[in-house]
Amino acid sequence: MKSFQYVTATSPASARQLLGDNGRYLSGGIDLLGQMKEYLAEPKVLVNVKELPGLNKIESGDKVWTLGANVTISQLEDDAGIKKVFPGIQQAAAEVGSRQIRNVATVGGNLAQHSRCWYYRHRDVLCLKKGDDMCFARHGDNRYHSLFTGNTCISPVVSNLAIIFAVLDAVAIVQRGDKPLRMTLAELYAEAWRNPEAHNSLEPGDLILKIEVPIQKRRSSYLQMSAKSQFDWALVSCAAAANLDGDKLAQPSVALGAVGNVPYQVKAADELLEGKVLDDALANKAADVLLEKAHVQTDNGYKLPIARALIRRALMQLKA
Ligand SMILES: Cc1cc2nc3c(=O)[nH]c(=O)nc-3n(C[C@H](O)[C@H](O)[C@H](O)COP(=O)(O)OP(=O)(O)OC[C@H]3O[C@@H](n4cnc5c(N)ncnc54)[C@H](O)[C@@H]3O)c2cc1C
Predict the structure, then answer these.
(1) Which is nearest to 144 in space by CA: 227, 46, 63?
(2) How many Å lie between the centroid of ligand 1 and the Cα of residue 32?
(3) Which residues form ligand 1's pocket by a CB distance below 6 Å?
(4) Is the pTM of this model over 0.90?
(5) What pLDDT digit, counting tens, does each position of 27-69 carry?
(6) How far, in whole angstroms, is CA 282 from its chain's centroid?
(7) How far apart are CA 255 and CA 189, in angstroms?
């Protein structure tokens, strides 16, 4: 590992100042330290943001819950209120990596984690995501890659929290310069759809402060399928959220993870579900709409039937 300076920020403003032009924010370090050990990232300064005041709390409210960026994934997994009000968040948190990882990894770091594409993660491979001109996954082993892409990079977003926050209409509060900015989850990842080098829409120096999750959707669920039961990312994940008006769905949303450069949502699928009584046939129709534009690569066609099953099961869990 290259040598670096280590400093602890005590306010968002000082964090930005300490970062300079070649620094990186450090939360749990699960992603960033791995990148540094592989020489993928060589920051001159690591700015520890874990001591920023007030960002390690889960705060309940009548209309909105606030999750600080430094809340750990274990905190989300263990919080009785989260489990009751946002079961999908609890399920998404419990599926992250392993308990050891969840004890350390944070909400902010989970959302801002970089691509897991094995070509990108190989120190000797210069790919499109690293600013070169070739996506090796397109012509190589793409079994873990995207079915939906907005550009020539086919590495998918693998943050569990991004997928569940997307269907719950959560908003990220991000410090940009001296102003806090509100970004929907779609906005937080839109740049990754457009630009092969982007992992998300954060600009250098942007600091995620907290996530606001409105409570209008009282039902939520998250499911994933991984190759291993622990220590692994999803091959495909699915989150769903809605209200139930009697037997009918209100404000439904479904999102897929690990299959696109962004949490993958299709407005027409949500519209199809609106006001309907959920059954297997309807869930299957929603899956048809969500998967309609899938573009299968040479090795990842197996993701399609998994996605279809997860969509159906995640939706049916809303009724449970
Ligand atoms: C074996 C293994 C399995 C895994 N499985 C899963 C899985 O199933 N699902 C899943 O979602 N994840 C999984 N992960 C990824 C893991 O959850 C993330 O690496 C972790 O959540 C990152 O959080 P962190 O706090 O450690 O971030 P760090 O490593 O400290 O930071 C990650 C990135 O975010 C930036 N950053 C950190 N905090 C902020 C902030 N507040 N504002 C802006 N930028 C910030 C950092 O500069 C860095 O670029 C797995 C990881 C491993 C090693």
Answers:
(1) 227
(2) 7
(3) 24-32, 49, 69, 95-97, 101, 104-106, 108-110, 112-113, 158-160, 202, 207-208, 231-234
(4) yes
(5) 999 999 999 999 999 999 999 999 999 999 999 999 999 999 9
(6) 27
(7) 13
